[in-house]
């Protein structure tokens, strides 16, 4: 399944309520990933808040078909970033470098 997920794939991130059971430290790490990494660092991502829902990360292929959904309520920031990289998402810095190299080759 991972092979069908390309760097150009769209990722839709749905955030629900972060339960107090996850602890304030867990909530802080999760929020840091969301507000400092997810949409600012990675290309082709979207955040959507759904009140009352547990946070999940969903992945779509180029055709817009849902390919995978992960429950991320208990995951740490470094785990979430690793998932993004494993699914082929580029950081905006990587995308810029790739575009600059493509223009150099012309």
From TrEMBL:
Residues 1-23 form the signal peptide. Keywords: Signal. The keyword Signal applies. Residues 31-89 form the Selenoprotein F/M domain. SUPFAM superfamilies: Thioredoxin-like (SSF52833). InterPro entries: Sep15/SelM_sf, Sep15_SelM_dom, Thioredoxin-like_sf. Belongs to the selenoprotein M/F family. This is Selenoprotein F/M domain-containing protein.
């Amino acid at each position: 399944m991972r092979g069908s997920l390309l760097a150009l794939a769209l990722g839709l991130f749905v955030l629900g309520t972060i339960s107090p059971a996850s602890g304030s430290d867990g909530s802080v790490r999760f929020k840091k990933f969301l507000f400092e990494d997810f949409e600012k660092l990675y290309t082709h991502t979207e955040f959507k808040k759904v009140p009352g829902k547990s946070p999940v990360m969903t992945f779509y292929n180029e055709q817009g078909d849902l390919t995978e959904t992960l429950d991320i309520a208990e995951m740490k920031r470094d785990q979430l970033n690793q998932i993004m990289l494993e699914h082929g998402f580029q950081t905006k810095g990587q995308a810029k470098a790739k575009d600059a190299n493509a223009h150099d080759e012309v």
